[in-house]
Design goal:
By secondary structure, the protein is of the alpha/beta class. The chain has one domain (about 5-240): Bira Bifunctional Protein, Domain 2 (BirA Bifunctional Protein, domain 2), CATH 3.30.930.10. It is about 30% helix and about 25% strand. The protein contains seven helices and twelve strands. It has helices at about 15-25, 55-65, 100, 105-120, 195-210, 225-235, 235-240; strands spanning about 5, 10, 35-40, 45, 70-75, 80, 85-95, 125-130, 155-160, 165-170, 175-185, 210-215. The strands form two sheets. Strands 1, 2, 3, 7, 8, 9, 10, 11 and 12 form a nine-stranded mixed beta sheet that branches. A hairpin with a 5-residue loop joins strand 9 (about 155-160) and strand 10 (about 165-170). Helix 1 packs across helix 6.
Length: about 240
């Protein structure tokens, strides 16, 4: 089955999270993997489903004390992610793909290995964090964290500075595995992001055994997107925990 490459989109934080959720659970071709890169209409921060809102707000005081940021809770786990200068993507691996059934650490490793290879092909000095130390857990965590501060096993690191370059969060449902990833542009040299996207998706296609196919944005049920955007924007979702 092909890997659908969807058009780039720019949207608000709530709409971006709603779109990823629909791509996971309501995609018209559920047997196909799908990938998208997207941007943010306003400066934004997202945080993992299991995070405590009090902790998130406390961290924002030092992260961006003088800037208004759109804030929303992701459907995936993980920590706090600052999207003000990142390259954001979502990948959905459908049920039935071998990587869907793999352990979370293995799917994390395989996707980030492809990301590392794509950046290295463009001359970027990045490596995969392949050893767990006292600062990482060995499993994707829902404990309070600020992404790009504490590296986890199989995160992407700068080979020279040790800085975290890329991290991600995952969610598995009966429909598929959603992988939401973020690359910190500020930690890298000059990158041709269009070429990176082509190289990265080609690597993902090879990993999944899928041919790449450029696809239009899917048509979801009437009102489905609007309803989810409202959910991700409402205070009840934000303060769920």
């Amino acid at each position: 089955m092909p890997l659908h490459i969807l058009p780039d989109r720019t949207a608000g934080a709530a709409e971006n999270m709603a779109a990823d959720f629909l791509l996971l659970n309501r995609y018209p071709s559920p047997e196909c993997a799908r990938f998208r890169h997207y941007s943010w209409r306003m400066p934004a921060v997202t945080f993992g489903f299991g995070q405590k809102i009090a902790y998130v707000r406390e961290q924002l005081k030092s992260l961006a004390p003088d800037e208004h940021l759109e804030l929303t809770r992701r459907p995936t786990g993980g920590g706090i992610v600052d999207h003000r200068d990142d390259w954001t993507f979502a990948l959905v691996i459908p049920r039935g793909q071998p990587l869907y059934d793999a352990r979370a650490t293995e799917s994390y490793r395989r996707v980030h290995a492809d990301l590392v290879a794509a950046l290295q092909a463009l001359g970027q000095p990045v490596v995969l964090k392949e050893r767990c130390d006292s600062a990482c857990s060995g499993e994707p965590t829902s404990a309070p964290t600020v992404c790009f501060v504490r590296p986890e096993l199989y995160d992407v690191l700068h080979a020279e500075t040790g800085a975290k370059v890329a991290g991600a969060a995952q969610k598995r449902t009966k429909h598929g595995l959603l992988f939401q990833g973020s690359i910190a542009k500020s930690e890298l040299g000059k990158v041709d992001w269009d070429t990176f996207a082509e190289t990265f998706t080609a690597r993902l296609g090879a990993t999944l055994g899928s041919e790449l196919l450029n696809s239009p944005w899917p048509e979801f049920a009437e009102g489905e997107m609007d309803g989810l955007v409202e959910q991700y924007a409402e205070i009840g979702w934000l303060e769920y925990r």
